[in-house]
Amino acid sequence: MEVEEGGVPLDEKARRMRDLLSSFYSPDHSASAASLPRNTSSRFATLDTINTTAFDADQYMNLLVQKSNVEGLLQKHVEMAAEIKNLDTDLQMLVYENYNKFISATDTIKRMKNNIVGMETNMEQLLEKITSVQLRSDGVNTSLFERREHIEKLHRTRNLLRKVQFIYDLPTRLEKCIKSEAYAEAVKLYTGATPIFKAYGDSSFQDCKRASEEAVTIIIKKLQGKVFSDSESIQSRAEAVMLLKQLDFPVENLKVKLFEKLEQFLVDLNLESKELTRASIDASIREFAKAIRAYKVIFLHSEPQLSKLAQDLVKKHFEATHLRIMKQVYSGDLLAMLRLIWTDVLLMDEVLPEASLPDCALQYAHVAVRDYISSAFGRLLRYISDSLMTAQFTPKEGIEEEHSLQTALDAGKKAVTQGSTDALLDFRQLLDQETELLFRLRDLTIDWVQEGFRDFFKKLDGYFLLLSGKGNTTSEDVNLTEMPGDKIAAGLVLVLAQFSIFVEQIATLEYPRQELASFASGGGVRDYGHGSVLVPAEICPIFRTSGETFLHLYIKMRTQKISVLLKKRFTAPNWVKHKEPREVHMFVDMLLQEFKEIGTEVKQLLPQSLHHKHRRTNSNGSTASSRSSTLRDDKLSRSNIQKARSQLLESHLAKLFKQKMEIFTKLEHTQESVITTIVKLSLKSLQELVRLQTFNRSGFQQIQLDIHFLKATIKDIAEDEAAVDFLLDEVIVSTAERCLDPIPLEPPVLDRLVQAKLPKTSEQNPIS
């Protein structure tokens, strides 16, 4: 705390100074003294009593001596001496100031005394004059009293006659107002006469009342027409309603009819019609806004109903937008529609801000933009589907079939790459617009696009699986090309297999992920970690699995078709009564034709293998297989049936000691792997069918001839010749096991028949 030179705090000194002045000018010193405690034991209480009239010096000294030492007393002495000096100075200043004020007050009193001299005489003269005026006024009032009463009576009679004349002239004046369309004047006249009609309308003024009411009925009809007229100004229509209220007309009925008219306007407003131009729609919206403004002015507290009506208009706008989105529009069309809707919303918001139309439009735009993004991805999905489905149908005349699958695959690749790029560019236009409506949806739009790409690839895979019969038929995907069901072409399945591999490769590339990340830069509500939802770890396994599934399905479909062909061959004839073979059976040509078609499809879509062809020289167990085949041919050429049967036993023993051979290897996405797998499965099916039949000698020889011919022709088709030869040998062995007389054809005869067939087969089925 800041301290003065005397050691006394400034706030305490100021308080004591105020108390001193108060006690000096106070008229009652006892009051201030009584407010302080007389007996206190503290040091501060004693200091407070020193400035009162009840101060006890002896008690003060006793307490001070008891509580202070010598040094404290000396310090107190110095403080009190300083305070006394300060008080003397302050009192001297007060005396000087008050002295100047006393001198000024004395001078003022002297001037007042000089000015008042002579005023009393003037006041007495004024009183005499006022008394004289009052006496003369009373005389005049007394003399004119009777005449004044008569004049007032005549004035009252004159006013009554005027009112009677007004009542009699009212019908005529109302008719004049109707002709001049001065309806406000007419209502004013009629409402002025209403109290008289209520009092005397059934007696003295009955005819006037009836004529006036007829005129008022016409006025009411005119005012109603004015309210419903669109050509009238809003102010005129509002005045008409106010006049109807003054005439006690039930205005609520008008309110209901006008509101129904506004509702009917919305019903008749066809925003989906192509015949309506934008200018006509704008004119209709402006007319509607004008009607809303008039209704709001005319009927107070109608904002809730009008808000619902305005929100219905916005809803109708977006319903028309939704229908156009479903019919396929692009971002430019959507932006134009949203821009026009936002213009109408701002126009209506000026008229009816209570409806909160910008927020309402934002909610509907939220749905519209999301529907558009979903529709765009659905359109892309249909584009890809239509491109790939060309492989399902027979190529047109003049177009080689061997190029149809490659064309379909190339079209699908172009559709997914170019279509995705075009979709991103299309979506980017939504983000580049400065429209407030789209700006508020920017982050959500980015999220919807990213989610759309992720769902797009999943739906694409699901559709492929559904197309091939492997997926769930209850999936809620977009409407795509009609499902071919069980008649799906095997070539289409092979196209889908390669297309799945292509999509897997796209997902691993950096470019599309960078494009999607660039699109989402600086926006989005959700955090996707690396800025993109196109995560290879999620997309690649899906399409890798689908690619393998479709490849296995292709092999299965082709193998089943060949199995049907083989089944017809082995179930149709009676092999026990089979005739001696004269040539290779035609089913071999049909089988080779199937292999040719498979090779054509596979070679135009699948790449070649990087490994060397699996020949006899480098095939495990091929030497043993060759020896086994030679052993069978030599031993079965004997004419003795018993020796042939013993040779059959020896062949079985040879199989037990033969080096183990791997028939079915891992399937790869190569031409050789697919073709070889189909050939192996077909030969295995042939072996199983042989085991179900019983053959005579001719039947056995026919099978021997057919298999021998296949050995000569199939070596250029399949990759693993050793395994194929092994399976062909197994067919012959199985046939011998099921034969009643397994005596084979002589090798010269066998070679002659095969050589006779080879040129014909080369012409019919050239192996490429």
Automatic annotation (TrEMBL):
Where is the region Disordered?
A: 608-636
Q: Name one GO biological process term.
A: retrograde transport, endosome to Golgi
| Low complexity bias locations | 618-629
Q: Which residues form a coiled coil?
A: none
Query: What InterPro entries does its record include?
Result: Vps51 (IPR014812)
Q: Where in the cell is it found?
A: Golgi apparatus, trans-Golgi network
Source organism, top-level taxon: Eukaryota
Q: Which organism is it from?
A: Sesamum angolense
On assembly, the entry states: Component of the Golgi-associated retrograde protein (GARP) complex.
- Family stated for the protein in its record: Belongs to the VPS51 family.
Which keywords describe this protein according to UniProt? Golgi apparatus, Lipid transport, Protein transport, Transport
Q: Mind naming one GO cellular-component term on file for this protein?
A: cytosol
Q: Which Pfam families match?
A: VPS51_Exo84_N
As for what it does, the entry says: Acts as component of the GARP complex that is involved in retrograde transport from early and late endosomes to the trans-Golgi network (TGN).
Protein name per UniProt: Vacuolar protein sorting-associated protein 51 homolog
